[in-house]
Amino acid sequence: MAGLFTKARKRLKEAAKHLDIHTEVIEKLRYPKETLAVSLQVRMDDGSRRSFKAWRCRYDDTRGPTKGGIRYHPAVNLDEVMTLAFWMTFKCAVANLPYGGGKGGVAVDAKSLSRTELERLSRAYIQAFSRFIGPDRDIPAPDMYTNGIVMAWMADEYSTIVGAPTPAVITGKPITLGGSLGRDDATGRGGYYVLRHLENELGVSPEKSRVVMQGFGNASFHCARLLHADGFKIIGVSDSRSAIYDPDGMDPLAVMDHKQKSRGLSGAPSNGKLREMTNAELLEQECDVLVPAAMENQIIEENAGNITAPIVLELANGPTTPAADAILRKAGTIVIPDILANAGGVTVSYFEWVQNKAGYYWPLEEVQSKLKAIMDPEARRIWNVKQEKDVDMRTAAYVHALDRIASAVEAHGTKAYFSD
Ligand code: NAD
């Protein structure tokens, strides 16, 4: 079976068919620019030494320093890190950020480590990659199972190595250490802006649209909260253990409060019709907008035919496989692709970096209005590409991003220029 990276790279060729770009652009984007693989040596609390495999990939930096999160997960591998870095390259171009794409990961079950072990691991990551990353070279951020305090340890370690406070080396930091206001809800908010901006085209509206979310973490909770406040009915949410569904709708704030107190969704407050089900069942419930916001490969060939939602808003990275995409396309389902739907996160990360470099910090309203000023027009441009080229929205997003990347690559000259 083809790996994740091989499948992801097919999007590139598909997008190129719709553009008049030089073949050298595809040649340049064929492989990551550079990838470093290391083994991190960590002293555990019981005195023993353990080795953890770790990677950082800088996929392409034609448009600027590479940018992308660091994931801690036992299943992280080189193929996944390269794929995520490839997606970041296109996501940054979708939002027109002056960045290329990167990504990092450590093969570790973060939940099995103590807090002191987690700190030593995070500092070891920066010791290993300090010459690879940098505020003008490659700027990490949180991803699955890494958070603000991990970023704080990492920024501190980097600053110690270079001998000067360097907050711009990493984003997603706590506010008090140079984080940006508005980063916490940026991913969910960005998806919310896209959905609301295109609601006439998509045929959704607060009065009549029911929303199902897979996952109930950072990205999905904030999106659910904002949609609910506007009048959308949130009829299903899930976490890694279970899913809850109530056709009469639920209040995401009350559900989150319950989840935090009881460490699960089971028994969440409802209007009386709440049912528990599996994650697989939840994806197939009748609704108007389905929001996969957990992890990769959730809508697959085997279940795509059972998805009834006419709109899928991909807050997770890579939740839909190419085979499932084809089935959804045939059924007329509109998939708002990850590289647009969740680009709000990296956009506010970019704002954090800009504020760190300037040493001047913006109020929350300014962050949110600047985010909207990026998400709305980029969503519109991608919608227009979809209409003009008669393609699905994912292809349109890749065409839109590749157009920007290609013009940067071509600006250095191509064979046509040099052999003239
Ligand atoms: P998170 O850890 O806050 O939340 C993930 C949620 O998914 C949790 O509720 C978890 O219980 C649930 N989950 C995990 N495994 C599951 C499974 N098998 N089935 C159903 N639910 C499951 O993470 P997050 O930051 O919200 O990220 C979610 C997705 O969004 C990821 O794909 C991530 O790459 C993507 N994303 C996040 C951001 C961001 O800024 N947070 C930005 C871009 C993309």
Description:
With 420 residues, the chain is an alpha/beta fold. It has helices at 4-16, 23-28, 78-94, 115-129, 148-162, 186-197, 199-202, 218-230, 252-262, 279-283, 301-304, 322-331, 338-341, 343-358, 364-389, 393-410, 415-418; strands spanning 34-43, 49-60, 66-72, 100-106, 138-142, 210-214, 233-238, 243-250, 275-277, 289-292, 311-313, 334-336. Residues 143-144, 187, 214-219, 238-240, 279, 293-295, 315-317, 342, 345 line the site of nicotinamide-adenine-dinucleotide (NAD).
Kindly list the characteristics that best describe this protein.
5-stranded mixed β-sheet; 46% helix; 420 residues; 7-stranded mixed β-sheet; alpha/beta; binds nicotinamide-adenine-dinucleotide
SSE arrangement:
Layout: H1 4-16, H2 23-28, E1 34-43, E2 49-60, E3 66-72, H3 78-94, E4 100-106, H4 115-129, E5 138-142, H5 148-162, H6 186-197, H7 199-202, E6 210-214, H8 218-230, E7 233-238, E8 243-250, H9 252-262, E9 275-277, H10 279-283, E10 289-292, H11 301-304, E11 311-313, H12 322-331, E12 334-336, H13 338-341, H14 343-358, H15 364-389, H16 393-410, H17 415-418
Parallel strand pairs: 3-4, 3-5, 6-7, 6-10, 10-11, 11-12
Antiparallel strand pairs: 1-2, 2-4, 7-8, 8-9
Estimated helix fraction: 40-55%
Radius of gyration of CA atoms, rounded to a whole number: 21 Å
Ranges where pLDDT stays below 50 over 5 or more residues in a row are none
Q: Main β-sheet, in a few words?
A: 7 strands, mixed
Instruction: Write down the secondary-structure element order.
Output: HHEEEHEHEHHHEHEEHEHEHEHEHHHHH
Strand order of the largest sheet: 9-8-7-6-10-11-12
- Backbone structural class: alpha/beta
Percent of sequence in beta strands: 15-25%
The end-to-end distance, rounded to whole angstroms, is 43 Å
Number of helices: 17
Bound molecules: nicotinamide-adenine-dinucleotide
Tell me, what's the shape? globular
Strand tally, please?
A: 12
The multimeric state of the shown protein is single chain
Overall average pLDDT: 96
